[in-house]
Amino acid sequence: MEFNQDLLIDIAKKAGSEILEIYNDPNKFNVVDHKADDSPLTLADKASHQIIARELENAYPEVPIISEESEVPDYKVRREYNYYFLIDPLDGTKEFINRNGQFTVNIAVIKKSKPIIGVVYTPVSDELYFGELGVGAFKLMANIKKELAVNNKKGNRIAVRSKSHASPEEEGVLEKYDVVDSISVGSSLKFCMVAEGKADVYYRHGPTMEWDTAAGQAVVEAAGGSVYRGTGPEMFSYNKENLLNSSFLCLGFD
Ligand SMILES: Nc1ncnc2c1ncn2[C@@H]1O[C@H](COP(=O)(O)O)[C@@H](OP(=O)(O)O)[C@H]1O
Ligand SMILES: [Mg+2]
Q1: Which of the pair, 20 or 169, is modelled with greater confidence?
Q2: Is 208 assigned a ligand-binding role in the annotation?
Q3: Degrees, nearest 5: CA angle 45-51-56
């Protein structure tokens, strides 16, 4: 099955423009709801989901969609999927509400249980990361395209951690990787930092959902990195019966 790179990029950017419109309109920005698990839900999450779902359904009517903002199909149905889109229309809702710009639109293509394509778009900075396994990864900033490759550093490494959900258990794991400094970033941008060589290690101890990690994983793996379940060596897999992720470790070196 073929997926059109430009189309996926265009869809992520369209969703990003809609998010920005809400971000920049105080009347819309201040409408914040709460989901059953008490996590925040903004008008932007919903609007972004609607655009992405509509555009993907038009272009690929035969490919199912799993999104943070729609009902997840029953496991008996989705376990049969060969390909599906896994989307987080607005990852880093806390960053959105805190207005620090570190939130992203995420679209991934999953083949069986593996992310093979990922698009991560940051509307505020207009930076877009794209990765396709076996093909490569790049970053688009306005009209500049930069190929991405992990650092593959042997030591003196930089860690990247959640801005809103870092946990103390992470220190113990980071110690093993000769980490000399760490940076905090919101959302799936952490995977992109590793793909870009701005960081080398990302260990997440706390819970995330499959849609939080899929696109970022495809970007970093296409740039030469790896994502492991727990602290390794098993790879991180998708379309599990429960879409809640375990802790994971992302490395930008062998
Ligand atoms: N208790 C919890 N259970 C499941 N996922 C959680 C969680 N706490 C945080 N997350 C996930 O962590 C993501 C944010 O991670 P980070 O802090 O690294 O930016 C959230 O994405 P959303 O903002 O899209 O909801 C959310 O899905
Ligand atoms: Mg998310």
Answers
A1: 20
A2: no
A3: 120
